[in-house]
C-alpha cells in the first residue's frame, strides 16, 4: 500500500515540476508533433507558439505555472502523513479522492470556457482518473487495516 502512495506522490511531483519547463518541453517535442493527427498537431503548434510568444513578450505569465508546480509539490508533501501512518491520516487520502474527482468538472467547464479542445480535456481528466484509482485502492487497504486492528484483542 505504501508503494501506491509513493507512486501517487511521485506522479504529483513530476506533473508539478513539468510546469516549470513548459517552453523547453514543448521545444523538445516539436519535431515529433508532425506524427500527431491533424487537430492534435494544430493544437500542439498553437500552444507552442503561445508559450513562446508569452515567454518573449510576457515572461511574468509563467509565474502562474510556477505556482501550479508549487501547489502540486505541496499537495504531494501532505501525503507524507498517510505514508507514515495511513490510519491516522486517512483524511488526506479522502481529500486526494475528492480532489481527483474535482478534476472532471474543472476540465470540462473551464476547458470549454477557455477553448481547450475536447481531446485535451479528456487527457486532463485522465490525471484525475489515475489519481482516483490509486487512492481508491489505498483507501480500501487502509479500511481493511483499520478493521483488522479494531478486531484484535487488547493484550
Structure explained in plain terms:
- By secondary structure, the chain is mostly helical.
- The chain has one domain (2-149).
- Helix content is 80%, strand content 0%.
- The protein contains seven helices and no strands.
- The chain has helices at 2-17, 22-29, 38-57, 62-78, 80-84, 90-113, 118-151.
- α1 (2-17) runs antiparallel to α4, α2 packs across α3 (38-57) and α6 runs antiparallel to α7 (118-151).
- The chain is elongated, with a radius of gyration of 19 Å.
Strand content: under 5%
Tell me the structural class: mainly alpha
- What is the radius of gyration? 19 Å
**Helix and strand sequence:** HHHHHHH
Shape: elongated
Number of strands: 0
**Helicity level:** over 70%
N→C terminal distance: 27 Å
Indicate the low-confidence ranges by residue numbers: none
Counting DSSP H or I runs of 4 or more residues, the number of helices is: 7
Count of all domains: 1
Largest sheet: none
Q: What's the overall average pLDDT, rounded?
A: 94
Amino acid at each position: 500500500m505504501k508503494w501506491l502512495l509513493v507512486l501517487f506522490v511521485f506522479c504529483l511531483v513530476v506533473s508539478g515540476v513539468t510546469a516549470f519547463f513548459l517552453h523547453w518541453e514543448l521545444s523538445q517535442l516539436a519535431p515529433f508533433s508532425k506524427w500527431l493527427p491533424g487537430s492534435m498537431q494544430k493544437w500542439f503548434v498553437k500552444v507552442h507558439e503561445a508559450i513562446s510568444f508569452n515567454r518573449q513578450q510576457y515572461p511574468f505569465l509563467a509565474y502562474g505555472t510556477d505556482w501550479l508546480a508549487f501547489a502540486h509539490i505541496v499537495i504531494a508533501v501532505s501525503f507524507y502523513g498517510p505514508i507514515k501512518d495511513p490510519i491516522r491520516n486517512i483524511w488526506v487520502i479522502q481529500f486526494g479522492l475528492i480532489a481527483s474527482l474535482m478534476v472532471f468538472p474543472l476540465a470540462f467547464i473551464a476547458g470549454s470556457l477557455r477553448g481547450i479542445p475536447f481531446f485535451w480535456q479528456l487527457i486532463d481528466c485522465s490525471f484525475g482518473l489515475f489519481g482516483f484509482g490509486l487512492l481508491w485502492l489505498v483507501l480500501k487497504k487502509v479500511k481493511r487495516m483499520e478493521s483488522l486492528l479494531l478486531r484484535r484483542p487488547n493484550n
